[in-house]
């Protein structure tokens, strides 16, 4: 549409999006054509479970470190002591 000489505001109105959305999409996808943008979205969708797993593993490791640290800091009590 823009290649046909239409103004951005007119194209946004036709597509029923705001100019802010158009600006954000242009920044996000740069010079990608429709096929490139679809490929990028498919790749993000494919890698999403792997990213979630990696985040969960990092959180688990952080909790293990915190647990070890807290265990080392806790006072040792002898049997019968209060």
UniProtKB/TrEMBL annotation:
Superkingdom of this protein's organism: Bacteria
GO molecular function annotations of the record: DNA binding; transposase activity
Entry-linked InterPro entries: Homeodomain-like_sf, Transposase_8
Swiss-Prot/TrEMBL GO biological process terms: DNA transposition
Coiled-coil regions, chain positions: none
Signal peptide (residue range): none
Protein name (Swiss-Prot/TrEMBL): Transposase
């Amino acid at each position: 549409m823009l290649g046909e000489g239409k103004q951005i505001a007119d194209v946004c109105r036709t597509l029923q999006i705001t100019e802010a959305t158009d600006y954000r999409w242009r920044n996000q996808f740069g010079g990608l054509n429709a096929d490139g943008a679809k490929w990028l979205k498919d790749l993000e969708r494919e890698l999403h479970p792997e990213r979630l797993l990696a985040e969960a593993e990092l959180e688990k490791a952080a909790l293990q470190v915190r647990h070890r640290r807290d265990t080392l800091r806790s006072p040792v009590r002898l049997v019968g002591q209060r």
